[in-house]
UniProtKB/TrEMBL annotation:
Entry protein name: Flagellin
GO cellular component terms listed in the entry, alphabetical order: bacterial-type flagellum; extracellular region
InterPro entries: Flagellin (IPR001492), Flagellin_C (IPR046358), Flagellin_C_sub2 (IPR042187), Flagellin_N (IPR001029)
GO terms of molecular function: structural molecule activity
Originating species: Petropleomorpha daqingensis
Domain Flagellin C-terminal, chain residue ranges per copy: 309-394
Pfam families recorded: Flagellin_C, Flagellin_N
Phylogenetic classification of the source organism: Bacteria, Bacillati, Actinomycetota, Actinomycetes, Geodermatophilales
Length: 396
């Protein structure tokens, strides 16, 4: 018997220490509901669990991104549907205007007045349809939606395309005029921006004598159609030549009206015995391709009623094709949302199996450890008392 070393006490102590540590871990799992509360609990499981958490978070955000995509497409489709309704009304009016047997110029002028108002509404819809301040129908919308938890999992969305918006210009309806059919001999030169080289102004040349009387005056009065420039439109036939006598008078009235309607920095028209030339402003230093496009003047003649029907049919077909594309992409978004929601559910279940505590099993473990702790404590107390028997020998 030894009083220096109490092996029984040491053994009981070490057993109680291991049991206490295991009980502490069991209680921590029950308190947090997590099987892995620190890396030491399960290093490999922790790594997998954190990866799954990142995947679940990314997919949950991707679902919301895809829902934003559906919202964008629904807004665009609603606006395009409204434009289709307008175009159908415009087509009815064009068919009506084509009835030359009973409609005179005054009647077709009244029809054209409504067509102009409907055309303005087309432009308004194209300019104001936006999502979070981003225009959807200007022909330049090209979005890339992140619809997955990882890089590269995207869906591209393009509305219109080709820098052709859904306004009258983009739909090739600027020359729509059912009153008569006019197409002046004209050649157009686009502006050159600083991004393309040395900036130069765009121009339109109308063939004819605009200097010598009486041909010049007759040619000025015969000017019909529209010029678009920098987002504005100038109707050549809207110039009031009342009081004009000489060729210079006619040219001045034309320039004054163009200056007012187009907001130029100076008179744009110049005349010669061979042609009438419209000159735009020179793009500024640092100008872009988009600037050059805006500053490139375009001439549109009058379509006439028969051609107007064909022009409107093409516009309807383009919008219908665009809506079909948007509908297909929307279906893709909705299938993606369904897939992601299922994937989030599956990944969450996988993460739960790794990370979460099996409460029933853990309660059983804790009960067992509680019993072992109590038994270990009793045995340690008993072992500590064993040395007391030596005192009996001394007392003898």
């Amino acid at each position: 018997m030894s009083v220096v070393t109490n092996l029984a006490s040491m053994t009981a102590y070490h057993s109680l220490q291991r049991t206490s540590s295991a009980l502490e871990q069991s209680q921590r799992r029950l308190a947090t509901g997590l099987r892995i509360t620190r890396a030491a609990d399960d290093a490999a499981g922790l790594g997998i669990s954190e990866g799954l958490k990142s995947q679940i978070g990314g997919m949950s955000r991707a679902v919301r991104n895809a829902q934003d995509g559906v919202s964008v497409l629904q807004i665009a489709d609603g606006a395009l549907g409204n434009q289709t309704t307008i175009l159908q009304r415009m087509r009815d009016l064009a068919v009506q205007a084509g009835n030359d047997a009973v409609l005179d110029l005054d009647a077709r002028t009244n029809v054209q007045a409504e067509l102009n108002q409907l055309g303005d509404q087309l432009d308004t819809i194209a300019a104001r349809t936006a999502f979070n301040g981003v225009n959807l129908l200007d022909g330049r919308y090209a979005g890339l939606f992140q619809v997955g938890a990882y890089s590269g999992q995207t869906i591209p969305v393009t509305i219109g395309g080709g820098a052709r918006g859904m306004d009258r210009k983009g739909l090739d309806l600027l020359g729509l005029d059912v009153r008569d059919s006019v197409q002046l001999p004209a050649s157009m030169t686009a502006a050159v921006s600083a991004a393309q080289g040395v900036p130069s102004a765009g121009r339109i040349s109308f063939t004819g004598d605009y200097v010598n009387s009486p041909a010049a005056e007759a040619n000025f009065r015969a000017l019909e159609g529209t010029i678009t420039y920098n987002g504005k439109t100038f109707d050549l036939g809207s110039v009031d030549y009342t009081g004009a006598v000489t060729q210079s008078d006619y040219l001045l009235k034309l320039n004054q009206k163009a200056l007012t309607d187009l907001g130029l920095t100076g008179y744009p028209f110049g005349a010669s015995p061979a042609q009438l030339v419209f000159n735009g402003d020179v793009p500024a230093a640092g100008s872009t391709l988009a600037d050059a496009d805006l500053l490139s003047p375009m001439y549109y003649g009058h379509s006439g009623a028969a051609q107007a029907i064909t022009m409107i049919d093409k516009a309807i077909a383009r919008i219908s094709s665009t809506r079909a594309d948007l509908g297909a992409v929307q279906n893709r978004f909705e299938h993606t949302i369904t897939r992601l929601q299922g994937a989030v559910e599956d990944a969450t279940a996988s993460e739960s199996r790794i990370q979460d505590t099996d409460m029933a099993a853990e309660f059983t473990t804790m009960s067992r450890l509680n019993v072992l702790t109590q038994a270990g404590t009793a045995m340690l107390a008993n072992a500590n008392q064993s040395s007391q028997s030596i005192l009996k020998l001394l007392a003898a």
